[in-house]
Amino acid sequence: MASSKRMQPDRQSGLFMRYLFFTIICLFFSRIGIAAEQLPALQGTPSSVTSQIESVDETLPVAVPEPSAKALAHYRSGTVLWCIRTIWELWLPILFLFTGFSARLREFARKIGRHWFWAMCIYFVVLVVLNYLLSLPLAYFQGFIRPHAYNLSNQTLAKWFTDSLKELGLVLVLGCLFLWIPYLLLKKSPRRWWLYASLAMVPIYFFVVMIQPVVMAPMFNQFTPVKDKALEAKIMALAERAGIHGAGIYEVNKSVDTKTANAYVSGFLGTKRIVLWDTIIAQLNERELMFVLGHEMGHYALNHVVKGILCLSVLTLVAFYGVHVAASFLLRRFSRYFGFDQLSDLASLPLLVLLINVFSLVLTPIGFAYSRHLEHEADRFGLELTHYNHSAGTGFVKLQQQSLGVPWPGLVYTIWRATHPSNGERVEFFNEYKPWLKHEPSRYEAYFTPEQPKK
Ligand SMILES: [Zn+2]
């Protein structure tokens, strides 16, 4: 798997905790998975545009356009970059392990730190910072050079770099807070650690998801109530119809970072919220935006964040068991190179990371298939709530074209990288899913307040 505390799956530094963040973000911050260059702002549009929107025939189908040559180039170069990054993330821990560097670093940390906890922190900090520095050129290319080359980013180098340092700081703090847990379990229960550690991960996942919107996200961007008050009132009315009362709905100034557009649901319990990037508010017309909100309200009402964490917890159990079995095998064969022969040795961290990366690569297709299922259901919820089928289609076509999206990606992309159904599949679903026209029951009717939506 691949990604970070941030919303973008391709930007991150860090080791152990990166896996955690990446996985959570990829699967569970429930983005609608579209990105776009900025269109001329349609927000606060003159009445001519508003009247056009009012007269949209929502029963008309929308054609899925062919991707542009630039979009195909973006897709192909993205695939090459994904391969390079995946290999890099496997190769780096192999290097730390087989050179004996990890064992030497553990010795150094023990001498300096004395107490086991400080030794662990020193070891972790040095390893993660080294990993960060070695990965910096690739991260810079992927996170800064490439989006600018495709005209998908507005971000200044200073913002990119300070964000990158903040991410590093977060990984260091969270790693020092939580890393002792698996090592304690490895020491106390060498045979069953994988079971107890995966159980321990469940509250950690919930904790990270809960603090993410209030602690981490505001470190990078400004979150405010929706600035356009007329729009906010319409969003609140839609939320009431969706059976969501008193939901937090925020606007975030992502236009400083990107020209792409997005929306997502994050948080847990008191921090649960719907977040709209300011770019998506600027790019979509009102009905298109209301469908996107209906989709996000689907995630919110159907508890997709919690379902995602539970799915991740099951995958974690399988992955940790796989790590347990594979690590025993590797330790028997290669411990003389590694400089340690117990998984409970702190120096085993690159081995754990390597194996977690391998097993997450194996398990990613399952997690992503589940994620695509949740996204499809959120689409269904959004359509049933708004009946804006045509506007959903035009919105997604607009975003596909602006974001250099490819409507029908290949099988390998779908299996390992697609957290959402393809744009082509989604638009076709918008075109055909209208049970209310045939007086058939809708799946999520029971969630909606009785008043029928205004058309
Ligand atoms: Zn979604």
Automatic annotation (TrEMBL):
The keyword Transmembrane applies. Its EC number is 3.4.24.84. It holds the Pfam family Peptidase_M48_N. Zn(2+) binds at H295, H299, E375. Binds 1 zinc ion per subunit. Keywords: Hydrolase, Membrane, Metal-binding, Metalloprotease, Protease, Transmembrane, Transmembrane helix, Zinc. GO terms for molecular function: metal ion binding; metalloendopeptidase activity. Residues 227-431 form the Peptidase M48 domain. One of its GO terms (biological process) is CAAX-box protein processing. The active site is at E296, D379. CDD domains: M48A_Zmpste24p_like. The keyword Transmembrane helix applies. PANTHER family: CAAX PRENYL PROTEASE 1. This is Ste24 endopeptidase.
